[in-house]
Protein 1
Amino acid sequence: MTPPLPERAGRRCHNVLNPLHSTHYFSPDLGRELAAVGIENERAAYFAVRAAAMGAVGAGTVTATFFNFRHELVAGHVPAVWRTASPETVLTARLRAVDATLRRLLGEDVVASGEVAEAAKLALRAAEACTRTARPLYAAHADLPVPEAPHLALWHAATLLREHRGDGHLAVLLDAGLDPVEALVSHTATGKGMAPRWALGTRGWSRHDWEAASGRLRERGLLDADGELTPDGAELRRDVEDRTDRLDRAPYEHLGAAGVERLTEIARGLLMTALAAGAFPEGMVGKA
């Protein structure tokens, strides 16, 4: 009989796989590869690489699936970006950027290691139990071929698991009555979300939008006058994550407790190496 997963084992695994997926968004390699196909604006590049798996979609689809970006910001770049480079071209450029990023952050020896190959097999095994229904970003990426190189296969599997959890997370946020800005504000208030200046600088919202969302959260008793979560607010955020865990349990149950533990162990080591190599900008996460 398969032993049950420890509590929050899937979330812990996600929390080390997701940043490995995300390293390329902050990489100069992505900017270089997208510029080579004509996409020089960094916001347009982000929208293009994450949405490309869905095809030449419009701004409405990107806003709906990305959730916390201001629609007007999205519409300033989508669908115009597809006139510069097709989704197929963008996907090819993205994979080149991921390859360069992982080689630079992890080193050639790590990229070629047995641990990376093992992690790729484990992550792909977990992704076998992901489901397409009502999960548009996951479903679109699941239709892409698995890269042959183990480090790229690991990144691809991490992408599938990240988008699968993310699609479910959005459903939970909607049910919790949190709009895009309220979700950002309340997540930042946990100390684990994107710092306000990063959220405002990348998501298209103004300081007025942020303060208005904070006011709505205060009216609901979720945020106090100092911008900290109240006990009810903290409970709501815990409930959001717990319900997301439940919607995302299938991949990790499929992999099994031992597999999840091993994948988490390897991915954590890879993430620590990437962080030490400067994978993410300083001050990106936190309340400041």
Protein 2
Amino acid sequence: MSVDSTVMDRARAVADAVLYEGYLLYPYRATSSKNQARWQFGVLGPPGAERAGLGENSSMSAQLLVRDATGLRLMVRFLHLQHRRAERALESGGYRLVDELSTPTGSWMTWDEAVETELHYGPWDFSDPQRRFPVSAPAATNIEELTGGRLVRERHGVHGLLDVTVEAAGAVDRVTVTVHNTGAPAVDRHDAIARSMIGTHVILETVSGGFVSLLDPSADALVAAHGCEHHRCFPVLAGPPGCDELALISPIILYDHPEIAEASRGELFDATEIDEILTLRVMTMTDEEKTQARATDPRAARIIDQCDGMSAEAMLDLHGILRNPHADPHCRPAGLIPEIPDGVQWWDPLADNAVAPETDGVLISGVRVARGSRVRLRPVRRADAQDMFVAGKTARVTSVHEDVDGEKHVGVVVEDDPGATLRESYGRHLYFSPDEIEPLPETEP
């Protein structure tokens, strides 16, 4: 690949997340019922496996649009199943298969791991409009000797093809990419997954020119974009915003220029994961459960260590960030809640984008009240039984909101509440109408 290394690294980080999506699910133990059926995404099984009920469909294909391109470089990536057998040494000689092998350095379970396969092709010149490349990962057997036993890792061969074609499509060119598994028919389910390509995806780079977004195509490519067809995958622009030299054919639906959340501290593999919840759950696992997870898979062991070693600051970062996807929040002028544009209904995303509760304000008795303002609470609506307990108390404003009926609401934390800091960190605010709030000078005690 010839794009800048930092650009490629950002695309590869997303591709890695796709590769391992669903690899292992919480609680990350081989004995967990959730981990009895694995390999959820991008599985290309041997021919006939799907029809026989033994595995997945054998191919995936996508069509992309390129403009002013003369060729492509391609990278096919997938996981290759590796069966790990734990065997205990016998006093009489030889070995016996066991579910778990305990050694002075740790425990190991009999388990299906996976190894990464990454194959590079090209540059492919468009002067040849159709090319076929071999895709394969060889069979292998590796033995790791341990005190009191050994681990035997075995992989079956995986064989397939990568077909690429290009054709004119108006002002742009349409590229069709297909990955096939061409191995022998499977004899059973274990054989099918052992010879499948798992988490299969393709990274593409233009030799010149760039890709056209299929989610937001230009006017001259609109018809061609609508004519693109995909089978078991979803192509998007990859790399940072503004980059059109990279594309990712993903087995899961993404948006253009997908990114890994800055707050994430590492891979958790759990499909549609919520880092904070999963991290908290891992922290509450018993020592015995954590030992079982570590014995299951080296990647599970890293997750346990990562969560156990997380600092309070890192944990707080996982709690969430509010972002306006269409504007820089740092450049937003401080003012009142803006009016929703004419013709925009409350359910339209543009209505949400018009407001920013942490910087918007509301006028109360001619005074602008916004985040950080000090106020005195004068509840009159008795919307909650605890209103009587906070009447007359001073509070600090945390946010200003407007509901779909146009009613305004001010979020606050009570100043003399011993749990105010905790409540604010978790977003557990009290809400009052502007007519229940009295603005205070900052100097008033």
Protein 3
Amino acid sequence: MRRFFAIILFILCAVSPVSAEEIAVAAASDLNFAIKEVIGEFEKQTGHRVKLSLGSSGNFYAQLQQGAPFDLYFSADIGYPKKLEEAGLTVPGSLYRYAVGRVVLWAPKTSSLDLAKGLTVLREPTIKKIAIANPKHAPYGRAAVAAMEHAQVYADVKDRLVLGENISQAAQFIESGACDVGIIALSLALAPAMKSAGSYWEIPAEAHPPLEQGAAILKQSKHQELARNFLSFLQGSQGQEIMIRYGFTLPK
């Protein structure tokens, strides 16, 4: 009997490393906390691995055009994966609108700002630095600029803007005290660390173009089936519950 169990253990140890695969995922940094939870559950249930890289959607788009070695791309702007699809760089039929994002005005709990005033509070002379993501390549940065223009405050505050490389870096600027206030993703404001460190005011959806977010499997991927499985997991009940908890509106 002991020998039997030893043989079974040997087989398991020999087979599992071979059967386990890994996919490389490039994801917009607004997904930082949500996608890490999704990955954790997916890895636990399947035994496969997901190597995550977070950054700005625009920078990843440029890298993928040059053949960056990713299997799956999650963008905060569905327009980027659509362009990759048009260029023949994605698996046909894999484009998926996985969520609609929201932006918020966030300030630390030590701040005396009345966020209930909305974006007009940005005119306060006590505010020296306002953090947003760089609108050149970050969709949340573009949404922030559009919202400020909608509130007719952009011209008054543009010289006080501090641009983060991506939305996570913009959030770090405020959380660390390097900036007084900022416009960040709701998904980051709902993360435990930021939720306990500050407060936010949700910017109305009509104040900026919708942040439709999209994912696609890259044609160069050698693990397309596993990438499909991960997308399916995100679309399932566990993945959807996590996305809702971080403030994303889900596609119908």
Protein 4
Amino acid sequence: MRHDGTTRERRRPFGLRTRLVLAFLLVAAVGAGTTAALTFREARNAVLGTAQDTAVASFRAQVRELDVLLPVSRPDLEFALRGIARNGRPHPWYVYAEYGSVRLSSATSPTSTVITPELRRRAHSDPHGSFQRVVKDGVPYLTIGMPVVFEAGENTGENAGRNRVVPTGLVLFAVMPMSEEQANVEALVVAARDGALPGLAVALVPALIAARSVLRPVRELRKAARSMGSGRLDTRIEVRGSDELADLARTFNESAGGLERSVNELRQAEARARRFASDVSHELRTPLAGMLAVTEILDEGADRLDSDTARAVRLISTETGKLAVLVEDLMEISRFDARAAELNTDEVDAAETIRKTLAHRRWTDRVSVDLPEGIRARLDPRRFDIVVANLVGNALRHGGGPVSVRLRTAAGADGTAWLVTEVADRGPGIRPEVLPHIFDRFYKADAARTRSAGSGLGLAITLENVRLHGGTVRAANGPDGTGAVFTVEMPLGTGEATA
């Protein structure tokens, strides 16, 4: 049973607009992140490098200016260490001294856990000293190791006149906390982050604008496609610009124009064909009426003729009758094509209408029926008679006995009451490749059957009459695979039926 429904457009959570905006924001985020990372790296290196260079240069200068007598005096050395610590640049230092087994410092502890063995080894071996950045308990430090040396002049040999660097065995270490630089670096991170987030928010505006400009032609194309699908073949899209989307709009317009021309040509050809069939059928009615009258007279006197003449007379009468049926069917189908067919409905007893159809054609003894009483429907009695007669006649001619007609009612999903008429036979059934074409005009299921008692339009006229009532008709094979079953469903158009 067919019921019309509405097609709702599904909302896609990740549609083209969303993906375009996300792609735009991703590019903006990557660009902002890369710029922020490079800026942060350069600024970090500048902050730490400036502090480091200042501290190393200042410490080296103070170590060179250190004036102590060897062997060292502990009070003098402690005094010197505190002086160096006070003059630390860019921040105060903690200064430690190592001289043999002597360990002194400007702090409360004579040794430092921040100074690494690697720095201590390089400070003792390199007369120019060394430095190292160390993180201890989350706090960054700059550690510098510098040996105290004195220069001695050479008086003889190849090195005469040159100064020779002589280590004294005294090594000084400076430890400078870099908390302030670390704070500056963290401030740079926060600034980069806080600057990127508003940047992304600002980038959202051009992203939406770009997505809108890209999607506008797509929406117009979708709207135009739907309009063409509803039958408006003159639909066109406004072409803007010269990009790929504009090329797509031009291609759509060209295709739509070609389709419109082709459809108009087909419609004109179809209209001409229908008009021709209607005109021919109408013109044939008058001579056919005279021919039928003559053949009836000849049939009445055929028994008084010789056998060959009588056979020819009966053949002419039979073929004239077939021609008359074909002409009537052509005129009927032409009225459907011209949309001139009308319904003249009346409330009738469906079972009684079917009985009259079978009795009028003398099929009562050849057809078994299951017709419950009391089913009343609002139908066009003449057209319902044609529907039943065409289906039963088709079953008797091409199917196999017994042929049965069953009447019942059914309720649709929306509560609509339907009149259901089933015509079944016990013949060989309908081949699967034939089923899709069973209601086509002049379609022959058996290519070898070039002549038949029917016009070839019976099932097509049945389909049009059922559609005119707002119903459906379908063909299928029986449940056990034998015989054909035609099912007609029409709205009752009246109150609830009683079966």
